[in-house]
Each structure stands twice: as structure tokens, then as C-alpha cells.
Design goal:
- By secondary structure, the chain is of the alpha/beta class.
- Helix content is 39%, strand content 25%.
- The protein has 8 helices and 7 strands.
- It has a 7-stranded mixed β-sheet.
- Strand 1 (21-25), helix 2 (31-40) and strand 2 form a beta-alpha-beta unit.
- Helix 5 (137-152) crosses helix 8 and helix 7 runs antiparallel to helix 8.
- The protein is globular, with a radius of gyration of 19 Å.
- Bound molecules: S-adenosylmethionine.
- S-adenosylmethionine (SAM) binds at residues 26-28, 31-32, 50-52, 55, 77-79, 94-96, 99-100.
- It holds the Pfam family Methyltransf_31.
- Keywords: Ubiquinone.
Amino acid sequence: MHNRDTFTQSLLAASIKKGMTVLDLGCGTGDVTFLAADLVGETGSVLGLDISQPMLDMAEERLTQTGQTNISFQKLDLEQLDQLDRTFDLILARRVLMYLPGPAQTLSLAKQRLKEGGLMVFQESDALGRQLNPDFPQHSRAIDLIWRTVAAEGGDIEVGSKLYTLLKEQGMEILSYQSENVLQTQESGSDLAWVLDMMQDRIIKHQIASKEDLEEIRSALPSELAQSKKAFIRDTAFGIIARK
Ligand SMILES: C[S@@+](CC[C@H](N)C(=O)[O-])C[C@H]1O[C@@H](n2cnc3c(N)ncnc32)[C@H](O)[C@@H]1O
């Protein structure tokens, strides 16, 4: 069954070779950093950067548990990428560009940290799939609330379909650009109730929905999925690979 890393793994498998030096922008708790480290092997290395110390603490904790020597983490705001004094064979990010106030500026700095012929690999989601589920009114309501909250926080919820233009404007050569719909079924279940729980305070703070609305949606989700004969289109992921 599909999991949230399947699309990422195919992007990384198509771009990362053994021995590469890789930079993971906005690594969070290191999910993608660890995937990349498996592919570069012991002769390569991966550096994960994030602005959030709690995220980095969790990433470091995982690193201690695995004992891997080809991974390191560093606290850095991506707007200050010029402070890094190394260059890399490949620079990647997953679900990060959408949160940046100026993705073009960050990409320009990242390009300066990329070796000649080096690759950029980005995965972003995009809210364009919101209208794709007319048979799932409550799931659609939930998805819509989530995207509107991210937008209210300043996130670019259409960055997935802008990746091509963003990288072209940096003078990068686009090698591949793909999107994939992530499906949820009765068998896989839906993670939307969990996401609504996680985001509840933010949704209420931005007055996107009330606590009562959220409870109503949450309680309707399981039966809506159980009664449907269709798959629910949960997310549209975009992936791009480009060369300097
Ligand atoms: C949705 S998470 C994605 C984490 C990871 N890339 C993944 O796919 O599992 C976004 C991450 O971007 C980080 N981030 C956002 N703005 C940043 C900035 N200006 N500098 C560094 N990291 C940033 C956040 O702290 C967070 O860990």
C-alpha cells in the first residue's frame, strides 16, 4: 500500500548516486535525510538543515539510535544559506518551499551552494486537488480547511505547480517534472481526523472553522469513507529534478 514516502523514494532513486554529498533543506525530524543517506552510502554524506531546534533534537535522537556516520544536522535559517561554506552534488527539500516567504531568493542561494552539473530535487504538495472528490463532502471540507489554514499562515498552497517556473527562473535545466495523486481507501483508512486534531488550534485561531464544526467533520469522516465505493484523493504531490 502507498505510504507518504513512496513518491519521495522514487524521486531520490532517480537522482541520488552512491558517494554524493547531499543537502536537505528544511529537514524537520530527518525523514528524507535518512532516505537520502541510505542511497549515498558510506562514501557519501547528507547534511540536514532546519530552523526549528525541537525538530533537530528529534532528528539527532534518531541519529544517535541508528549510529549512522554519514548524516549531520545543523540549525540554520534557509534565508541565510550563504553562511554555509561548502558546496554539494545535490540539494533537496520536501514540503518546505511552500512555507518560505521568498522561495526564489532561497533557491538562488541554494544554487550558489550547488556544484556545476549538480542536481536540485524538490517535492511539494499543491491544493489543486481540492475539487477532485465530489463524492466525499466531509473529506473535502476537511481538506479545504487545512489548505485555507496554511494559506492564512502565509504558505503558498499552489507551489507544487509552480516548481517548473521557479527552477527555470534560476536558469536550471529541468530533467523531470511529475505529479502523483495520493489515494486513501477503506483499507488504508484516512489520516484526516488526525490532521484536524493536530491543526485544531491553528484552524480556530485563523477563524477558518469552530471547534464544533471540526467535531462534526471528524465524526462524519469514518462512515463517509466506509460507505464509498471510490478512493479518496488525499493529496497531489509534485516532484521535480533539475540540473545546474
Ligand atoms: C512540513 S516540514 C517538512 C520536513 C521534512 N522536509 C519532511 O518532509 O519530513 C517543513 C520544515 O521546514 C522547516 N522550515 C520552515 N521554514 C524554514 C526556514 N526559513 N529555514 C529553515 N527551515 C525552515 C520547518 O521547521 C519544518 O521542519
